[in-house]
Amino acid sequence: MEVRRVQKFGKSTLMVSLPAEWVKEVGLSPGESVYLEVDEDGSLKVYPPNMKLQNATKEVKVLLSNNIMPEIVTRIIYGLYILGFDKIEIESKDKLFSEDILRKVKEAVRSLIGYEITVQNVDYIQIQSFLDPTKYTMTSLLNRLINNLKQMLHYLSLGIKEGSRTFLQETIELEKEVDRLYYLALRQLILSQSNRSLAYMIGVKRIQLIGNRILIKAIEESADEISEAATDLLTLTPQELEEVKNYWNNMFDLIEQSTAIIDHTIKVLAKEDAKLINETMEELRTLRRVLISEATNIENSTSNIKNYRILIAIRTVNLRLYNAIRRMEPIVEIAFNRSLENTKEIVID
Q1: Residue 206: which pLDDT band, with cuts at 50, 70 and 90?
Q2: Mean pLDDT across 23-28
Q3: Which residue has the higher pLDDT, 129 or 28?
Q4: In terms of DSSP H, where are the helices of 52-118?
Q5: How far is CA 95 from the centre of its chain?
Q6: In a 10 Å sphere around its CB, with 0-12 CB exposed, 13-18 middle and 19+ buried, how is residue 302 labelled?
Q7: What is the C-alpha to C-alpha distance for residues 194 and 192, in angstroms, rounded to an integer?
Q8: String of b and e for 19-33 (b: at least 16 CB within 10 Å)?
Q9: CB-based contacts of 252: which residues, under 8 Å, 6+ apart?
Q10: Which residue ranges form the domains of the chain, and what is each CATH number?
Q11: β-strands 87-92, 59-64 pairing
């Protein structure tokens, strides 16, 4: 480690000269700006403006046989995307991709932001990443995830109110977008682990890497629950869906409360107010108790329903909302812990 003396410049400015070898290596010129980052351990890091934000292109070749389960192809492509691979070459050991494998490859690529098939033959497919990771900050991805989650609840409510299969289907389509954003956010976090310059650019602190992963997973799982509620309702016939409309008022109140709580949950992430965050935690727990209580009310109000399919669908919506809210609790817990990270003194009035 090189040691340099701190010098005084003018009345109050302190200066440290940059190592000449480093300046030459990164091509820094007089008048250019550099990025400064204060790390969690108190150290100061200097980043040149032209520093490469990506390492060498990550490439991998995948050899497939047609006798494998097609689902493993999807998991491999998702895994390589999350791990930050920029180029995937897929070859068939049988000189021809089966229809199932070809379909799974195309479905996987379409569901991943920035991936495209650039070459396709009967026995060879090349997938390329066209992502610029610096354009996707963690804050913007979290906001997009939450906005999609709230829209899912909105369309679920409309689907019940109007007896509309279109609105219910839109809920499911929005969940697919949540998945796309989830995989992108996960890729960004993993890239940030090995590329501190990128982490700085997209607002990821080293101490918050694990917490951020829990955050995005919580949102993704909450979206899964809401999507399942819509899927359950879509199993009903149009006539059965019309009958569910009679119970919309009760469901509307619960969905609106859930939307408000989810909104509060993500907003407290940006706060460093332990008292406010604690209030949000209590709001979450209160809503969970309301949903449990409502389950009993549903039992009473639907006792005259003879069609068990309608009965199950109504009860399931309440259960899915309960699970969606429960999934959000880790987010508030993380927000609370972060509010204490840099605290020297805690005063609670």
Answers
A1: confident
A2: 78
A3: 129
A4: 70-82, 99-110
A5: 38
A6: middle
A7: 5
A8: eeeeeeebebeeeee
A9: 157, 160, 161
A10: 7-47 (2.10.260), 59-129 (3.30.110.20), 135-339 (1.20.58.220)
A11: parallel
Query: What pTM value is reported for the model?
Result: 0.82
- % helix / strand / coil in the chain, to the nearest 5? 65, 10, 25
Q: Output DSSP code: residue 328.
A: H
Which pLDDT value is given to residue 31? 84
Q: Can you give the pLDDT at residue 44? A: 83
- Token match 């010098």: residue? 7
Using the structure block, give the residue that is written with the tokens 């996987």. Answer: 108
Beta strands in the chain, from DSSP E residues, in sequence order? 7-9, 13-15, 35-38, 44-47, 59-64, 87-92, 115-120, 124-129
The owner of tokens 């204490």 is: 340
Alpha-carbon distance of 87 to 49, in angstroms, equals 26
For the segment 77-106, the average pLDDT, to the nearest whole number, is 95
Query: With bands split at pLDDT 50, 70 and 90, how would you rate the model's confidence at 299?
Result: low
| Amino acid present at 2 | E
Q: Assign 147 to helix, strand or coil.
A: helix
| pLDDT, mean of residues 27-44 | 79
Q: What number is the average pLDDT over the span 188-207?
A: 86
Percent of the chain topping pLDDT 70: 94
Nearest alpha carbon to residue 90 among 284, 331, 72:
72
Residue 334 burial (C-beta neighbours within 10 Å; 0-12, 13-18, 19+): buried
Averaged confidence pLDDT in the chain: 88
